[in-house]
Design a protein that fits this description.
single chain; 138 residues; two-stranded antiparallel ribbon; 3 helices; 3% strand; elongated; binds zinc ion
Length: 138
């Protein structure tokens, strides 16, 4: 009986840590929506579209596979901030329902719009620093 390699338990293919790509620095650059390599070129064009390559250092950025990860994290964070705030605000001030709805709908929307591109930048920078997906070729 031959042994079938299991990709879930076989760590021999795992990428080693790359000292030339510190994760924390890259994620901070990504949070600022800058290229994780040089920190100068814009990572995003428009609100959420990722540049194919950095306009300054020409690092290829199209390898990212952010998919729904940044949106998931944004919802998770905004939900965990807004729900306790809603509870505290409601129990202490008992505002009119329309006032409460307006404040929290606007707050959740604005907080999401603020966080989403920054989380996406940090997410892509993490993939870049760890050499995930196509970023490992160099
Ligand atoms: Zn760059």
């Amino acid at each position: 009986m031959s042994q079938v390699p299991n990709s879930l338990t076989d760590f021999s293919q795992e990428q080693p840590d790359r000292p030339d790509r510190p994760v924390r620095d890259a994620m901070l650059k990504g949070w600022r929506r800058k290229c994780p390599n040089c920190g100068k070129g814009p990572l995003l064009k428009g609100f959420l579209k990722v540049q194919d390559e950095c306009t300054v250092c020409h690092e290829e950025l199209h390898h990212h596979r952010a998919d729904d990860g940044p949106a998931y994290l944004t919802i998770l964070i905004v939900g965990h901030i807004m729900m306790p705030a809603l509870h505290i605000f409601f129990t202490h001030y008992r505002p009119e329902p329309l006032v409460l709805f307006t404040i929290f709908a606007l707050g959740a929307t604005l907080l999401s719009l603020y966080l989403l591109p920054r989380i996406k930048g940090a997410f892509i920078a993490y993939q870049w620093a760890r050499g995930l997906h196509g970023f490992k070729t160099r």
